[in-house]
Amino acid sequence: MASGEDNKQAVPLQQLKKTKPPGVKSEESEEERKQYLSILRSAGGELLEDGRHGLRIAGWRIETTKRPILNSDARQEWEKNLGSTHLPEMVFGESSLELVHEETGIKIHFNAFDALQGWKQEALPPVEVPAAAKWKFRSKPSQQVILDYDYTFTTPYSGSEVHEPSRKQVEMDVQARKTSECLCWIESEDRINLIALQSKDPILFYDEVVLYEDELADNGVSLLTVKVRVMPTCWFLLLRFWLRVDGVLMRVRDTRIYCAFESDTKGIPVVIRERCRREGTFEALAARGFPSESCAYSDPNLIYERLPVVWQKYEKLSF
């Protein structure tokens, strides 16, 4: 577990809540768009073609995709592939965030299926709820409710990474096709550059992607989102799982990943990851003088610092 001083160094979610740059707003004026494109070009970046949502900058292609929730047929297919009859109420199965370093083939991406695979594998015991709350989980008055699985969909997921060799690399080395699993995270003393994130540099791209959400039968909220911000000198993202079981428990699992637009001596980008898990009960918070009503905790940013850290890790991507 990290020290209290380390906890203060975590980049808060609020820092990602910036206004989208003019280049990605539908209601922008022509003048705003010209100004944005000028700033983007001066930073060496360009928007993606064919109406795709994202940009290229410093060798990275950064792209978000947003699609509707899974329909009934797709849900059945997911249940079959996951080996579970339970899925969150709203699964945005085709939504994603991808960050690809085109020269090296490093790809970091985020999607709901991999996150739910993590939930299935971790298989936490179900959070106990008051007897009266269990009735809310019934779809029929006569239905008996047995919560024998982790209905909160808590996941250890921190993103997916893979090496996808470029065409040039494949032509030069036929073995490159076999290196798709050579990326891994190793423990590191490197930390996210807070000064760079707090600078006044223009935001070239910002977006938020919801991966899945469940209201726990009106008994709380379970939400997995990823936010990304790109500036002229770096990109930064926050993957957050947020859980509130009303009157019982709150849980936050954050993954922050940062990459400055500079490479090591081999030309490989340096990508830093910080993972932190916080958790606390309503009872423990009330004992410290905080509100005990669920309505006081609709925004995880307001409770984040009040929840004790239960696990923390600092890593760097190894290639």
TrEMBL record:
In terms of superkingdom, the source organism counts as Eukaryota
Supply one GO BP term.
TOR signaling
Q: Identify the stretch(es) annotated as Disordered.
A: 1-33
Q: Which regions span the lipid bilayer?
A: none
One cellular component term (GO) for this entry is:
cytosol
Which Pfam families does the UniProt record give?
TIP41 (PF04176)
Q: Which family does it belong to?
A: Belongs to the TIP41 family.
Q: What protein name is recorded for this chain? A: TIP41-like protein
Write the lineage as a comma-separated list: Eukaryota, Viridiplantae, Streptophyta, Embryophyta, Tracheophyta
